Every structure is written in C-alpha cells, then in structure tokens.
Amino acid sequence: MRKEEKVFIIGFQKTGTTSLELALQRLGYRVYGGDKNLLKFLDTKELHTYIKTTLLDWDAVQDMPWPLFYKELLGLFPEAYFILTVRDPQSWIRSVVQYFASIRNPLHQKIYGVPCAEGFESSYLEVYQQHNEEVQVFFGDNPHFLVMDMKKNFNYETLCGFLNIQEIPREAFPHGRNNGRRRLPTYKWYRDLRSLYWNLKKGY
C-alpha cells in the first residue's frame, strides 16, 4: 500500500541509514536507494522532473547523494517527513575509513572533493559536520523534521511516534544488513589491499 506522505532519510552513509531503511520496510514503506544520476543535472527544472518521476512508486529514500538534495525534496514534497541520522563525528570517520578505505569512488569524490576517505579524513569530517549543521538550521523546529542519533534514539518508539504510527513493532530495531556477518578487519594493510582490488576492478 502506498504511504500518504514520503519519508526522506537525509543523513550521510555510516550513520545507521541501512538500519532505518530496514525499519521503514518493516513498517510497510517502499524504500529507494542511492541514485548517482542526481548529480548529473545542471538544470533545476530537469532535476525536479527527474526526482518527481523517480519517486512516483517509492515511499521513502535513503543513501547518497539524496541527503544533498533536502531543500529540493522539501520544495517538491512539503508535507514529507525528513530524518537526519547522525553519530559522533570521530566514530563516523572511523567507520567510513574502515569501510571505504582508499577506494576512489567517483560519487564520493564529487561529494567530499578529495580522492578517497583514508588520508583525507579532515575533508570528510568537514563536509559531514557542515551538512548536519546546515540541515538542522534549515529545518529548525519543523514538526516534520527529526534527528535520530545512533547512540540515543534509534528505536521504533521514536520512529513510529514521529510518523504517527500507532502500532509499534515488538521486534528489535534493525542493525544493518551486515549484522551477524564477519566485520571488516581494521588492519591498514587489509584496507590497502582491498582498496587496490576495488580500484583496479572498477577502473577508479
């Protein structure tokens, strides 16, 4: 069943966005993922048309680069719900470096303006913190805006209360698709090898 109002997750990757996606799916939302085509448009009208057309059959979105377009999304869907997912900056950058290492992802290069995460942590942190600050100032006390902190209020009670959903699931709140799988080793040599593999495979 199509939801009446859309939900936009506008937090950066590695801030619990996958967990929130799984929670929304559990609540019946159809969640659309990242779409690098968003960064291709130079004409505002074409961008708006693309967004409206793309989201016709989806109730919610998450993943980069959607968070960068929160102003456009509010203009197109003024009654939508917006959720900014956050975590402690130092915890965030450690997670980003462990996962993305020195992989030269073109999408990330456009967002952060540097070649990769490892070795350019300060640039990643600057963009991350600036985004979080600007979003909170922009929305202010808008009742359709919520900040969900991974260490504080990542639960169904907070989410369902915000979305006006009466029936709260009894199951535990999801913890991402990687829950239960072997975690990535933290050794730098492992990150270097994994980065070399993906850079060669993807032609980065």
Secondary-structure blueprint of this entry?
Elements: E1 7-9, H1 17-26, E2 31-32, H2 44-54, E3 60-61, H3 70-76, E4 81-86, H4 89-100, H5 106-112, H6 121-139, E5 145-149, H7 156-162, H8 188-202
Helix pairs in contact: 4-6
The dominant shape is globular
Average of pLDDT: 90
**SSE order in H/E notation?**
EHEHEHEHHHEHH
Q: What is the makeup of the main sheet?
A: 5 strands, parallel
Assign the CATH architecture: 3-Layer(aba) Sandwich
Give the CATH level 1 class.
Alpha Beta
Low-confidence stretches: none
Number of strands: 5
Specify Rg, calculated over alpha carbons. 17 Å
Count of individual domains: 1
Q: Compute the separation of the termini in Å.
A: 40 Å
- Helical residue percent band: 40-55%
In CATH, what is the homologous superfamily?
Answer: P-loop containing nucleotide triphosphate hydrolases
Quickly give the structural class: alpha/beta
Number of helices: 8
CATH topology: Rossmann fold
Question: Strands of the largest sheet, in order across it?
Answer: 2-3-1-4-5
Q: Strand content of the residues, in percent?
A: 5-15%
Give short descriptive properties of this protein.
single chain; 204 residues; alpha/beta; Rossmann fold; five-stranded parallel beta sheet; 43% helix
